[in-house]
Amino acid sequence: MISVNINGVLNGLGEFIGKMKKRKGGTVINLSSIAGVKGFPNHMAYCGTKFAVHGVSETLREEVADDNVRVITVAPGVVGTELLSHTASNDIKDGYESWKDRMGGVIHPEDIASCVSFAYNQPQNVCVREIVVSATRQQP
What we know:
The chain is an alpha/beta fold. The protein has a single domain, classed as NAD(P)-binding Rossmann-like Domain (Rossmann fold). The protein contains 4 helices and 3 strands; from the N terminus they run αβαβααβ. The chain has helices at about 1-25, 45-65, 90-100, 110-120; strands at about 25-30, 70-75, 130-135. It has a 3-stranded parallel sheet, sandwiched between helices. The longest helix has 22 residues, at about 1-25.
């Protein structure tokens, strides 16, 4: 999780941020999670990795603003993905399904894509710094 969620972001940035700075423009969109804004019990490592994405994004934004590079963080709540297929624990799966039922369902990947599209399609001089999006009834 740390390798993908933190090192993956850092390695990706290392591949292209210098080029964006050199050409004086570009947009970085980092995908985080509501778990990067608020901790969740029993998800310490995951939350830590997503808090790291937020921290990296905030710091990078300061470092590249004068080069006209935008940094956008998108932090979705529960999204209908195959996430649970990677979990062997029936307790976790049952709790997750119950949580989804209580909130009347989750948001869809297309909802996140719409948010990303909105932020990206702003003029280059406008930076939607962060989008936190979830199902209306998701708590927390």
